Amino acid sequence: MNFLKLPEVLQRGKVSRSALLRWLDQPEIGFPQPVKIGRGIFWIDTQVDAWFSRQAESSAAATAAAQAQALAQAATAAARAQEVTPSRRGPGRPRKVAAAAQGGAA
User: Fold this and answer.
1) Which among 86, 22, 16, 23 has a CA at the least distance from the CA of 51?
2) CA 50: distance to chain centroid?
3) Interior CA angle at 93 toward 90 and 96, to 5°?
4) Which regions of 15-59 does DSSP assign to beta strands (E)?
5) What is the pLDDT, as a whole number, of residue 99?
6) How far apart are the first and last CA of the chain?
7) pTM to 2 decimals?
8) Cα–Cα distance between 75 and 11 in angstroms, integer?
9) Looking at the record, which segments are called Disordered (predicted)?
C-alpha cells in the first residue's frame, strides 16, 4: 500500500485541483477520502486507482448506450424524412434577382 500526495492524485487522474476538491465535497460521487498522517494529507493508491477504473468502465458503458440511442434517433429521423408532407403555401414572393432579370429582359 502506497500513499499519494495531492499532486500525484491529480496527475494520475489528469484532473484539476478544483475538480478533485469538488469530488471530495460531494460524497455521492464516491471518490476516496484522504487519510491524514501528521500534517500531511494522503490518498491510498489502490483506492484511487480502483475509483478511476470504475469511472472509466461506467463511462464506456454510458458511451455505448448513448451511441445506440443516437443510432435509433437517426433511424427514426431518416424514416420521418422519407415521409412526404404536402406544402401548405405557395412559393412566396419572387426574389429581387429573379424579378430584375425578368424585368430587364422585357
Assistant:
1) 23
2) 22
3) 145
4) 35-37, 40-44
5) 61
6) 92
7) 0.56
8) 41
9) 79-106
Which cell numbers in the block locate residue 101?
432579370
> Among all chains, which residue has been given the C-alpha cell 434577382?
97
Q: Which three cell numbers stand for residue 2?
A: 502506497
CA distances from 16 to 20, 63, 82 (A): 6, 23, 47
> pLDDT 10s per residue in the chain (106 long)?
899 999 999 999 899 999 999 999 998 989 999 999 999 999 999 999 999 999 888 888 778 877 888 888 888 877 777 766 666 777 777 777 766 677 655 5
- C-alpha angle with apex 56: 54 to 58, nearest 5 degrees? 70
Residue 11 cell numbers, joined: 496527475
Q: Which three cell numbers stand for residue 78?
A: 431518416
* β-strand partners of 1: none
How far is it, in rounded angstroms, from Cα 95 to Cα 82? 29
Residues in contact with 48: Cβ distance below 8 Å, sequence separation at least 6, in sequence order? 4, 9, 12, 13, 32
